[in-house]
Amino acid sequence: MTWTLAACGQGTMIYDQQSATNRSISGGAPIQEEQPIGQSFTPALSSVGFVQFEFIDAHPGNGMGATVYVNLRTDSLTGSILDSTAPVFMPDGFSYGITSFFFATPAGVSPGTTYYLQPVVQSGDGLWGMIVGTYNYSDGTFFANGVPNSPGFDAWFREGVIIPEPSSGLLALAGVAAIWVAGRVRQVRARYLATLLIGLLASAGVASA
Question: Minimal CA–CA distance to 64: which of 121, 102, 132?
Fold first, then answer.
């Protein structure tokens, strides 16, 4: 398990599970030809908001590109689909690029239970590959043709949740609240000082009398 943070347009990404933190490349696996294909993982968090994979266009120059989405499955790589991400289009010639896939709402999972991520080419190029390597991820493995990969390869992947950025309206409201609190603090402090001064003057008057 590796928890790291990354900023994105939708908020802050918290990486729960990831097979690697670097960009080393060992090989590729054709998605369409080796279905069911994917990666198992064991979450530590109770939901999955996004998934990242690294892909390559194995047949560049044909002007096609590919549209891909990811299934989140339980029990096995052919088990029940808990949820699917929105599809993402990648252009022709896409080379060793990390692509982020987002669920419409975070998919609930049970920490410590094994789940399966299955990339699916919805349309486009027939030779779209996912990057795999000897990343030594301990809580899952890469699957091709429905079986675990015997050399112990893993797909390059990350999964986690997104902490949304506060809206501009909320930030403005927080700013107004902070100004109001600061003003109230100044008022209370001024009243306290005035009361203290009056008390001191009264005491001085009694002493002089």
Answer: 121
Going from the C-alpha of 179 to that of each of 128, 150, 175, 182, 183, the distances in angstroms are 55, 62, 6, 5, 6
Report d(CA 75, CA 114) in Å as an integer.
7
Classified as helix, coil or strand, 185 is helix
Pick the CATH number of 4-164 from 2.60.120, 3.90.320, 2.40.160, 3.30.160: 2.60.120
Distance (Å, whole) CA 166 – CA 72: 28
* 147: helix, strand or coil: strand
Please provide the distance, in angstroms rounded to a whole number, between the alpha carbons at the two ends of the chain. 78
SS3 of 124, please? strand
> pLDDT truncated to tens, each residue of the chain (209 aa)?
555 555 455 689 999 999 988 776 678 899 999 999 999 999 999 999 999 999 999 999 999 999 999 999 999 999 999 999 999 999 999 988 899 999 999 999 999 999 999 999 999 999 999 999 999 999 999 999 999 987 789 999 999 999 987 655 444 454 555 555 456 656 656 665 566 666 655 665 655 55
> pTM of the full predicted structure?
0.76
Domain ranges of the chain: 4-164, 169-209
Residue 86 is encoded by which pair of tokens?
A: 């929105």
Alpha-carbon 113 to chain mean position = 19
Lookup: tokens for 63 = 């002007």
